[in-house]
Amino acid sequence: MEDFTALLKKHNLKVTPQRLKIITMLHAHGHINIEDLFSEIREEFPNVSLATIYKNIHQMTESGLVREVKIPSLKSVYEVAKEPHLHMVCDKCHKVEDIVLDTDKIIEEAEKVSGYKIEESFITLRGICPECRHK
Ligand SMILES: [Zn+2]
Ligand SMILES: [Zn+2]
What is the CATH T-level fold of the domain 86-133, as seen in this structure? Predict the structure, then answer.
């Protein structure tokens, strides 16, 4: 179990029960969208509003603790920021998974071709996951 209190503090975020719950859930789920996060948090904090969740997620994203993962044609999901990685999205069950690949070559190639200095990349691959393929 990681020390989420220390993690919040490290990112200059005030430690609140809601924030601890959010970070715990992001950690447990890997990736989760706002609505699912909201409905689970409400079980514990019935008075919390969707706007509050948005506000907290926004602050946590701004601080670099949380990362928004934008997925074409699906809702954004959120994760605890970690080493650079790619996302796999299943078209059938819509689960989002991390894969770590060496993208240095692609980035280098892209810089060469475009003349850009690339600062960040968001790579998402879509397909059918092994579980859905074997159904
Ligand atoms: Zn699937
Ligand atoms: Zn991820």
Answer: Dna Ligase; domain 1 (3.30.1490)
